[in-house]
Amino acid sequence: MVAQTPVEHADVMARLNARGSILSSLSFRTKTFLGYAVVLTLSAAGMGVARLPTFIVEEHLRSGRLRRILTEWTLPSLAVYAVYPHTRTLPAKTRRLIDFLVERFGPEPYWDRDLP
Fold it and tell me: Distance (Å, rounded) from C-alpha 40 to C-alpha 36?
């Protein structure tokens, strides 16, 4: 596991009246740990809810250590592009790599197939 540096930020909670004026406020500092490994470890230990990519949690979902919740809610998809210089003929190695990427990461990536 890679040690992650916490990022500190301030949050403010305010109580408003009906006209939108601030009645009282509370300021506090929170720390966020950036890193899938930390979030995965904590969520698998039952210490919270996590939003992680399926390729990170695939093994945990299959074994039952984690389960999906809020399945009707999804995040926008991300696209991946293979970028290469334009030439008259595409080198065979490049073509094989593109074909491999499409097969492995196409409409349904291999890690998402048959997930519970």
Answer: 6
Cβ pair 116, 67 in contact under 8 A = yes
pLDDT tens-digit readout, 37-95: 888 888 888 888 888 888 889 899 999 999 988 888 877 777 778 888 888 888 899 89
DSSP, res 77: P
pTM beyond cutoff 0.85: no
CB atoms within 10 A of CB 38: 16
Tell me how far apart the 2 most distant CA atoms of the chain are, in Å.
Answer: 69
CA nearest to 60, candidates 47, 43, 72: 43
Q: Is residue 16 part of a domain?
A: yes
DSSP letter for 65, please. S
For residue 80, being part of any structural domain is answered with no
**In this structure, are strands 6-16 and 22-33 parallel, antiparallel, or unpaired?**
antiparallel
- List the domain range (segments joined by +) for residue 39: 6-69
Domain count for the chain, please give it.
Answer: 1
